[in-house]
């Protein structure tokens, strides 16, 4: 597969992942304004139509990213390992979000903490994009 085709597919998968995660994180903020039993029903549906596909597309993002790193030798660069470190944290956010939708009646957090999780996610994605476009070191 041509390198640029891998990169374009990587970018498309990233867009889908970021959109899915943003909707899911907004849902966790909105749940505080929805009757708890109703939220449990909504969360169960979103788990199949949003959370699971977002998880699968994240695996595709990783596979394509590692593939490019091996093809072009990016693993020799500090920016790549910094990117991986940030993406470990992104994986943690994805894990927390998945659990909140898998066990909606046990999900913890306040409106403020859920807004902070959303902003943290957006910040991590922005830092990741900066690193790969600027490749500062
Ligand atoms: C949500 C997570 C991710 C985001 C937002 C992201 C962002 C990007 C973007 C925007 C590009 C295209 C850069 C360009 O067009 O020049 C890119 C390329 C790349 N990404 Fe990712 N990426 C993510 C996950 C990963 C993962 C998990 C890996 C590796 C394990 C990875 C490794 C790479 C590599 C090696 C390139 C090619 C760099 C180049 O050829 O210039 N990415 N990434």
Keywords:
binds protoporphyrin IX containing FE, 137 residues, mainly alpha, 4 helices
Average pLDDT score: 95
Q: Could you say how many structural domains there are in total?
A: 1
Strand content: under 5%
- What portion of residues is helical? over 70%
Largest sheet: none
- SSE order, one letter for each helix or strand: HHHH
Architecture overview:
The protein has one domain (3-134). 83% of the residues lie in helices and 0% in strands. It contains four helices and no strands. It has helices at 3-30, 36-72, 78-102, 111-134. Helix 2 (36-72) packs antiparallel against helix 3 (78-102). The protein is elongated and about 50 Å long. The model has no long low-confidence stretch (mean pLDDT 95). The chain binds protoporphyrin IX containing FE. Protoporphyrin IX containing FE (HEM) is lined by residues 7, 10-11, 14, 17, 61-62, 65-66, 68-69, 72, 74, 84, 87, 90, 125, 128-129, 132-133.
